[in-house]
Structure formats: structure tokens, C-alpha cells
Design a protein that fits this description.
Elements: H1 4-9, H2 15-36, H3 39-52, H4 59-72, H5 75-104, H6 118-136, H7 139-155, H8 159-182, H9 184-189, H10 193-196, H11 198-207, H12 212-215, H13 219-242, H14 245-259, H15 262-268, E1 277-280, H16 287-292, E2 296-299, H17 304-310, E3 317-321, H18 322-332, E4 340-345, E5 349-354, E6 389-391, E7 403-405, E8 411-417, E9 426-434, E10 440-446, E11 454-460, E12 469-476, E13 486-491, E14 498-507
Helix pairs in contact: 2-3, 3-5, 4-5, 4-8, 8-11
């Protein structure tokens, strides 16, 4: 109860904290079984642990079974009466969770995130463990662990039992190491993952620290804990107070502000409340679905493999916060545009109709490969866009060098569109440039219903020097209507030769 990371997350809606509590309850029933020999408590313990454990952490169950093998004796006997019933109970619970996932979706990881090689994995594991060591246990708790280990070895009756206990300790630590290497990214960035793997191993080791005849008479050792509990309480409160609550509050405020109008937006688009949604990067697990007032699936991963699997789910509408649409979702998985047709949105979210299968050509996705002579611009636009034309006002270098807009040429390539229907457009420009001390500017010239052009200028400042600088600029454009041409052009107002690499424009 005084473990720092647990004390911080105990009152939060975090599955790891509640799961850790279930682990403690289940382990208590397991100890009751060991004390009484009544098989009923064994099944109670297994039932509770079923609800705690998740698929990647099943190795801890095998660790408990290994302890039974060592202490009860007889591999085949223990396999028959202990492991197989436990695995059967777990299999039933796992099938139930799989059905829940297929029906309602999940925000949890569905695949491992292993390290790229043993050397990198061990380095990351050690660095992350060192980074989180003060939150996994307090200094005095680590001291208590060492004291208990020393006493447990002292009270072991002979050398053989001491060696066996050390082997169990090494097996438990190997379990944690294996989990860490299979989910290395999570362990390096999320301290609460240690609630799932390392802390259960440490607690099991502590429970098994003494021969059984001492476990039923803990009074002789309780004075140690009575002396240390005040220190543990003080350290847990210190960690709790020092946690960066401001950043968490800011994130919650941002999510609330950007998702609060989602339901009204979907209602205005005529999307029935009965439709099934798929949300990407909506800040919290199911927060986007709650804000949209509809059932569906939620994904917080932009891993291409995970996104491809998510897009196969039985959902008809996709909602993505605009904050993450281009820099994360599209950037990590450009092929997502083959699955989507944009149907609307607001200043905070983009709403798409999801296709049943990827259909190339739903979006214009023209590329500007670096160093190639045929310069083409990618369009993140809707499927019914009218054909467009490019007017190039620059000499294009066809070698593996950037193309040049000479100093005497004030305007660069121009894109002209005549939208087929009213549409809310946003523009994002990104490229690398070298042009000395001057800034690079984009100008968007938009005419709506015959009114004077509404010109939007976006400046992308480039730092002084010859190094290639990458910048991006994004803006909303006034709603366009049929017969209202749109022009986007590059403006070289600095009066110097402009060198451009990998020009990319996204209209969406």
C-alpha cells in the first residue's frame, strides 16, 4: 500500500493499479490454501488471478507453479493438480475477454513491442529501471527487501534449500527481464508497467522468503515492518506530491476542449447514434467514444500494423483529432487515406467515412521525391475533387540536388483548384529549404462567391546558415464553393536563390 507508484495510481482509472490490488487479494487466498491445504482456496485464488492477469504476463503464473513444484515436489503431480486447472480457468477468462474485445474494442496493446536485439534491449532495460527505481520502491523498501532476503537465507535449514531459493529468485527476475524485453518501449516510458511484472515477482519472493513453519508466525519479524512503515508512508506521499499534476491537468483540459463538440458535429453530419465509430488518438482510451456519444473502437496507437488491423474492424465512421491527423496518424501510416473519405468535421476533429477495404485513388496522393525532376504535390483531399493543374514557374534540377527558384523569380509553383462543392479545407505545407537569411513564405489566394480574394500568408522562417532546415505550416481556409477557384503558390520574397527539397502540400 505504500509503494510509490501504486499510491499514485491507486485512485486513478488505471487498470494496472486495480489489477495489482487483485493480485494481492489472489495471492492472499493462495497463501491461505498453502496454510490450510484446502483446495477450495486454490480455486478462489486462481479465479481472482484470472481477472488480474493479462496475456503478456502469464509467465508469472508459471512462476507460481514453479514454486509449487519446488516446495511440493513432483513435476507431473503438480502439473496435473495445479497448473492444468489454473490454465483452464485462465483460458475461459481469456476467451471472455477476446469476445469483449471483438464486441466493444480495446485500447490496450494487442501485440508485443520487442527490442531490436539483445544488446539494445538490455541497455534500455537497465536505463529504464535506473530511471524508475525510486518510484518502484522507496529506498527503505529496497532496504527491507535486502533484509528479508538475508534473513530468509539465514533461516533456511540447509545449503540445498538456500540454493533452491536463490534459483527461484533468479527465475523470478528472469521472468521480469523477459517481459521487459518483449515490451521494452512500454517499460521505458510507463512506470506503472512495473506494477504488472516486477512488483508481483518481488512480492512473491518475499512471501516465499521463509520456510513454511515461519510463515504462520510472523510476529517475530513484524517489528521490522513497524519501524519502516512510517518511512514508507512519508516517501510515498513525497512521490505523490512531486508528480507532475500540472501536465496531466493540461492534457485533460486540452482533451475536454477539443472533444466537447464531437457529438454535435456528428449529429450535424447526419451520422446516426447507432453507427459504430473508430477513433484514433483521442487522448484517452474511450474518451473519444464517450465525447461522440456513440459505440465503437478506440485506438491510441499509430503503429502501421496496429492501424491496419483497426481499420478492418466493423466500424463505419472514423474520427481523428486534427492535432494528430497529419503529424502522427498520416505520417506514421500514409496508406490510411486509401481507407477513408472525408465527410466533414470542425476545428478540432476530422470525420471520415471508412471503406470496407483499402481502395487506392480515394485521395490524390502525389509525391515529391527528393532529387527527382518530376515534381508532384500530394493532395489529402476528398474523392470528388475536380482535376487540377500545376503551373511551374521554376527551372527544375533533374539531378540528385534540390530544385532552385532563382532570386529574380518572386513566385514559385502554383496550384489552382476549382472545388466541385462547398468544402472546409485546411492546408499544410512542409519542405526543406536553404536560402540564407530570408524566410520562405506560402500564400493562399482564395476567392469565394466573387468577393475579393481572401489571401492567407504563412511564413516559414529558416535559420541562418547553409544547413537544410525543415519547417511546416498549417492553416484553415475559408469554406469554398463551386466556382470559387483556389490558388496556392510559393512566394520567394527574400530576393535570394531558393533551394527546395521534398516539397509536400496536404489539402484536406
Amino acid at each position: 500500500l505504500f509503494i510509490p507508484v501504486y499510491s499514485y495510481y491507486a485512485l486513478a482509472y488505471l487498470p494496472s493499479a486495480q489489477a495489482f490490488s487483485l493480485f494481492l487479494i489472489g495471492l492472499a487466498q493462495w497463501m491461505r490454501y498453502r496454510a490450510t491445504g484446502n483446495g477450495f482456496w486454490y480455486w478462489v485464488a486462481m479465479g481472482i488471478l484470472c481477472f488480474w492477469i493479462r496475456m503478456p504476463f502469464i509467465l508469472i503464473w508459471f512462476y507460481l507453479w514453479l514454486i509449487l513444484v519446488v516446495e511440493e515436489g513432483g513435476l507431473i503431480r503438480t502439473l496435473r493438480w495445479a497448473l492444468l486447472p489454473a490454465v483452464s480457468a485462465f483460458a475461459g477468462q481469456w476467451l471472455f475477454k477476446e469476445w469483449m474485445t471483438m464486441t466493444y474494442g480495446t485500447q490496450f496493446l494487442t501485440n508485443f513491442l520487442p527490442a531490436n536485439g539483445m544488446a539494445e534491449g538490455l541497455h534500455t532495460w537497465w536505463a529504464s529501471l535506473d530511471f524508475w527505481v525510486d518510484e518502484i520502491l522507496s529506498p527503505t523498501q529496497w532496504l527491507g527487501v535486502l533484509i528479508l532476503l538475508g534473513l530468509s537465507l539465514w533461516y533456511r535449514p540447509d545449503l540445498k534449500s538456500r540454493i533452491m531459493y536463490l534459483m527461484l529468485i533468479l527465475a523470478g527476475l528472469a521472468t521480469h527481464l523477459l517481459h521487459s524485453l518483449l515490451l521494452i518501449d512500454q517499460f521505458s516510458a510507463h512506470e506503472y508497467y512495473y506494477l504488472d511484472v516486477l512488483l508481483p515477482v518481488i512480492i512473491i519472493i518475499m512471501v516465499m522468503a521463509f520456510p513454511r513453519r515461519y510463515q504462520n508466525s510472523p510476529g517475530r519479524f513484524s517489528w521490522i515492518f513497524l519501524c519502516l512503515i512510517p518511512l514508507w508512508f512519508w516517501h510515498a506521499q513525497e512521490v505523490f506530491q512531486e508528480k507532475d499534476r500540472l501536465a496531466a491537468t493540461q492534457g485533460a483540459d486540452m482533451a475536454r476542449m477539443e472533444l466537447r463538440d464531437c457529438r454535435a458535429c456528428l449529429d450535424d453530419l447526419g451520422i446516426p447514434r447507432t453507427d459504430t465509430l473508430l477513433t484514433f488518438e483521442t487522448y484517452t482510451g474511450n474518451g473519444g467514444l464517450i465525447a461522440c456519444g456513440r459505440k465503437g473502437f478506440s485506438s491510441l496507437s499509430t503503429n502501421p500494423i496496429a492501424m491496419k488491423e483497426d481499420l478492418k474492424r466493423r466500424a463505419s465512421v472514423v474520427v481523428i483529432p486534427r492535432r494528430f491527423l497529419l503529424p502522427e496518424v498520416y505520417q506514421d501510416f500514409p496508406a490510411i487515406v486509401d481507407w477513408l473519405i472525408r465527410i466533414g468535421g470542425n476545428q478540432h476533429i476530422a470525420v471520415f467515412r471508412k471503406l470496407d477495404s483499402p481502395t487506392p485513388g480515394q485521395f490524390d496522393r502525389l509525391m515529391v521525391p527528393e532529387g527527382q525532376g518530376r515534381q508532384r504535390i500530394p493532395l489529402f483531399a476528398s474523392a470528388n475533387q475536380l482535376p487540377h493543374s500545376w503551373e511551374w514557374h521554376a527551372n527544375v534540377d533533374t539531378s540528385l540536388q534540390p530544385w532552385v527558384l532563382p532570386a529574380h523569380q518572386e513566385y514559385g509553383p502554383t496550384l489552382r483548384l476549382d472545388p466541385a462543392e462547398a468544402r472546409h479545407l485546411a492546408l499544410r505545407a512542409k519542405f526543406g529549404s536553404r536560402n540564407g537569411d530570408y524566410a520562405v513564405s506560402w500564400a493562399c489566394d482564395l476567392s469565394v462567391e466573387g468577393n475579393p480574394p481572401d489571401i492567407r500568408y504563412g511564413s516559414i522562417p529558416i535559420a541562418h546558415g547553409d544547413s537544410l532546415a525543415w519547417r511546416a505550416w498549417e492553416t484553415d481556409l475559408p469554406d469554398t464553393r463551386q466556382g470559387s477557384p483556389l490558388s496556392i503558390y510559393l512566394w520567394n520574397g527574400g530576393g535570394a536563390d531558393l533551394l527546395i527539397d521534398s516539397l509536400e502540400i496536404l489539402l484536406w
